[in-house]
User: Fold these one by one.
Assistant:
Number 1:
Amino acid sequence: MTTVTVSPKFQIVIPARFRKDLGIDPGEKMQVISFKNRLELLPVVPMKSRRGFLKGLKAPFERERDRV
């Protein structure tokens, strides 16, 4: 387990190992979420980069007859 220290300005440094493994670059935007008594950092990803990520997904439900 890696430990970081919160600065007087409430800042932390993400250790180099994690930045490298996760591909985090300087200036990258992150969302901070409080979940079950912990903080989680999620990268902010432009919606355009998500285009087509569900391609080939099989819908496990039947559509209503008037919606086909």
Note: The mean pLDDT is 88.
Number 2:
Amino acid sequence: MAISLTESAAARVRAHLAQRGRGLGLRLGVKETGCSGFSYVVDYADDTGSDDRVFEDQGVKVFVNAASLQYVDGTRIDFVRQGLNESFRFENPNIKGECGCGESFTV
């Protein structure tokens, strides 16, 4: 089981944590929503939950709760900028399909 980050994603998380002045790393999860079933939930982790798995890549910790891990195991997180837009992108090997707008996925 693993979660990995590109250098761009790791740099973004490090910069944002430094700007916030607190935080342990990135928190990744999923919630049931959208037209395809699940969507990603991304936040900054300020503490460790009792059921969290912690992965570290490029000096950044990624926290995933046990309920979400089955849906995101093996995911590679990237951070991209396109014009004025910027966002995290996910290369998730568990995805079987995505909705047309790209906001939700099925496993």
Note: DSSP finds two helices and nine strands in the chain.
